[in-house]
Design brief:
Layout (H helix, E strand, L loop, with lengths): L1 H10 L6 H8 L6 H17 L13 H12 L4 H9 L2 H4 L4 H8 L1 H14 L7 H17 L2 H15 L6 H21 L3 H15 L1 H35 L5 E5 L3 H11 L3 H5 L2 E7 L2 H14 L1 E9 L12 E6 L5 E8 H9 L16 H16 L5 H12 L3 E5 L5 E5 L4 H8 L1 H5 L1 E6 L2 E3 L11 E5 L16 H12 L4 H17 L9 H11 L4 H9 L5 H9 L14 E3 L7 E2 L12 E6 L3 E6 L15 E2 L1 E3 L7 E10 L4 H11 L3 E7 L7 E10 L2 H12 L4 E6 L3
Parallel strand pairs: 2-5, 11-16, 12-14
Antiparallel strand pairs: 1-2, 3-4, 4-5, 6-7, 8-9, 8-10, 13-14, 13-15, 17-19, 17-20, 18-19
Helix pairs in contact: 1-3, 2-4, 3-5, 4-5, 4-10, 5-8, 5-10, 7-8, 8-10, 9-18, 9-19, 10-11, 10-12, 11-12, 12-13, 13-14, 13-16, 19-22, 23-25, 23-26
Length: 717
């Protein structure tokens, strides 16, 4: 190592290559001493990667220089850029970590080590493996967020230089980028990096689709430019008359964003591309609102297409005014209005005005929001399964939010489809655990009611109340699910243990065995090996979904059964009252009389679906995850299901349908009115409780007899 250090000292005085000189030109925001440290990092990296080549044949050192340049474009600190230059040396050379710490400090070593560990994470299409990898990445980010910024820069340069790899490898890396890295960049508010990652990855992951969209976009470019010139010219003229100094930009649509919108909203290319984007950048916040009024005078605004992200920033700290207008000949125009400072933040996110580990009031919103997010990740990192961890933060990575008020006027940000229970847990864990009812805009509603932006929500609580297992069927937030699951896991309920025993006995039967044929000694050794204190502890772990009964049975018997040796002669009978461990999802809302199948979930125990549910196909091929179930004949209580009633939009239609349901002895849990159709009809969406399928059929027959009813059907989500 001394020889290495001596060689590095000798090279410090030599002329730097062109790429390194270009990097230093971008570092004028750093002091001379900081730049000297970065020069030294380059020398060490150059020695470490000496004679190493990339797959393309170019010198390997070009890659860490490119990574450092991306970090410099983000205007990060000297430690980040030095670590960017050194990020591969621990893996690709014999350099001792102690030497890095000695020459560059412990912080740089920690960053290099953190990135090296991320490089060792193997991406897989397998959900379990992918979830574990994702968890490692998130927890590394918690330690020092600069680790993920270096990794994002590393990934960006790699995805842009994949030509030397085979096509399958390119597609794997590209899909990994779209699934993991681009969403993280988006969550941190680094939009220009998110766009660059998506653009390069889209071309590699879906080359045919990218080519078709690219050609289609080129054909429309000249036409678009003409319309945009008309729009921007009128905006500029009116802004000058109002003495507002503003920069007007036409927003170019990214191919991947077009593709995502087409796919998610089921829209044609023409429907997407016929929307024109304009961005207006001003000096002061007050001018943003002045410009908003001005553009509304020029072109008519579209109802319900306005968002004030200045007053209420997005979850990643993004701020801007968004409005949609009807332009020339009815052309839709999307207008963004923001200050120069907001625009810098919009492009650079957490990296804007970079400060590491500060709690300064001058921090930009993305830095504040990022710290809040990291605190959340730290809070949930103790969950048992990587899949559960992934589910817990997926909502935050793909944010789509509603904004609601507490009775005191505080604004809470929640995912779309959040319910009153989600709101309660967002206020405080104790409020969620003890809630018994809710009011929306002073009107009492069921706890499962989905909340909407602008509403004021009030939660009623009592100290005697506890979380209800059925809440797991309709909540949307990670915090609510985590707290409910933690509460239920701590319950030593007889029903959970009983269900776990039934599931395990059923698994043994599927393998052609009976528990009475297993000796006490064999069972005790099995439990000891797995770390269970007794039978009840073991059965509870199965009943709550932590352990797979079929896998446990195979381990006990010392077998690995193939699919064709599994027996399904004895289905598991369920009553629907198991509560903690048996749940009925919203996707198909099964009721007694429906043909059903059980799915073993590590998050929700036994999940019962209708056999024709679209989600069944995702797990039916994995015999270790599903189990044959049937309804117990002794079911006495009602279960929830959903129906859709298509009616003429006339006064009293809703009341008449609701009254008919009540007359049949069924409880209405929730009702939603869908949008009005062109033929003056509407859809009434009911969640009702019925005893079984026969009772539901009777209710539906009575509703169908009504004059105003056009059609009635069982609703699937």
């Amino acid at each position: 190592m001394e020889q290495f250090a001596d060689k590095a000292e000798t090279m410090m005085g030599t002329k730097l290559p062109k790429l390194m000189r270009q990097l230093l030109d971008n570092l004028n925001y750093l002091g001379k001493s900081d730049q000297e440290l970065i020069k030294k990092a380059y020398v060490f990296a150059n020695i470490a990667h000496e004679e190493q080549l990339r797959k393309s044949g170019e010198p390997y050192i070009n890659h860490p220089i490119a990574v450092a340049k991306i970090l410099a474009d983000l205007r990060l600190d000297k430690e980040s850029i030095a670590a960017g230059l050194l990020h591969d040396v621990l893996e690709d050379s014999e350099i001792n970590p102690d030497l890095i710490a000695k020459e560059f400090g412990q912080n740089v070593l920690n960053l290099v080590d953190g990135v090296s560990k991320l490089d060792q994470i193997e991406y897989s299409e397998n959900k379990n493996t992918q979830a574990a990898s994702f968890r490692k990445m998130m927890l590394a980010m918690v330690e020092d967020i600069r680790v993920i910024l270096i990794k994002l820069s590393d990934r960006l340069h790699n995805i842009q230089t994949l030509d030397a790899l085979d096509k399958n490898k390119q597609k794997k890396i590209a899909r990994e980028t779209l699934d993991i890295y681009a969403p993280i960049a988006n969550r941190l508010g680094i939009y220009h990096m998110k766009r660059a990652l998506e653009t390069a990855a889209f071309q590699r992951a879906y080359p045919f689709r990218q080519k078709i969209l690219s050609n289609a976009l080129k054909r429309r470019t000249s036409h678009q430019k003409k319309i945009l010139r008309t729009i921007t010219s009128r905006f500029r003229k009116n802004l000058e008359q109002a003495h507002i100094n503003a920069e007007i930009q036409s927003r170019k649509k990214d191919l991947y964003s077009i593709y995502k919108k087409m796919k998610s909203r089921k829209l044609s290319f023409d429907q997407i591309i016929d929307v024109y984007g304009v961005r207006i950048i001003v000096e002061q916040v007050e001018e943003c609102y002045q410009v908003l009024g001005l553009v509304h005078q020029i072109y008519k605004p579209i109802m319900d297409k306005f968002n004030d992200y200045i007053a209420i920033p997005r979850i990643n700290g993004y701020q801007s005014l968004h409005t949609s207008l009807l332009g020339p000949s009815g052309t839709p125009i999307e207008v963004q209005i923001r200050t120069k400072a907001m625009n810098r933040v919009a492009e650079s996110g957490i990296a804007a005005h970079w400060k590491y580990k500060t709690e300064n009031e001058d921090d930009v919103p993305p830095q504040i929001k990022a710290r809040e997010w990291l605190a959340t990740i730290q809070e949930i990192q103790g969950v048992t399964h990587p899949e559960e961890f992934l589910e817990s933060i997926k909502v935050d990575l793909y944010p789509d939010k509603v904004y609601v008020f507490t009775p005191k006027g505080k604004i809470l940000r929640l995912p779309v489809n959040s319910t009153c229970v989600d709101f309660a847990y967002a206020v405080h864990t104790d409020v969620g655990n003890s809630c018994i009812g809710a009011k929306i805009d002073r009107q009492q509603v069921p706890l499962r009611t989905v909340i909407e932006s602008g509403q004021t929500v009030e939660i009623m609580t009592t100290k005697r109340s506890n979380p209800d297992p059925s809440w797991l069927n309709f909540i949307a937030t990670a915090k609510a699910r985590l707290n409910i699951r933690n509460y239920l896991k701590n319950l030593n309920t007889s029903e959970t243990i009983a269900l776990g025993k039934r599931l395990f006995d059923h698994a043994l039967t599927m393998l052609g065995k009976k528990q009475r044929n297993i000796s006490r000694k064999q069972l005790k050794n099995f439990l000891d090996d797995l770390g269970f204190s007794d039978n009840k502890d073991f059965y509870r772990s199965i009943g709550t979904g932590d352990k797979n009964p079929i896998l446990m049975a195979q381990i006990l018997l010392g077998e690995s059964e193939s699919d064709d040796t599994m027996k399904e002669d004895n289905p598991l009978y369920i009553k629907g009252t198991e509560g903690v461990s048996v749940s009925f999802p919203k996707c198909c809302t099964p009721i007694p009389g429906d043909t059903i199948i059980g799915h073993l979930s590590k998050q929700r125990g036994l999940v019962v679906h209708r056999r024709n549910c679209r989600h069944v196909s995702s797990f039916i091929k994995d015999t270790s995850r599903w189990i044959g179930v049937e309804w117990d004949e002794s079911i006495e209580h009602n279960l929830s299901t959903d129906i859709k009633v298509h009616v003429m939009h006339k006064p009293g239609s809703l009341a008449e349908v609701a009254s008919t349901i009540a007359d049949k002895g069924c409880n209405v849990e929730q009702v939603t009115i869908d949008n009005e159709h062109e033929d003056e009809t509407i859809d009434l969406l009911f969640s009702i409780q019925v005893k079984n399928r026969l009772a539901l059929a009777e209710v539906m027959r009575e509703i169908k007899k009504m004059t105003n009813v056009v059609k009635i059907s069982r609703r699937l989500h």
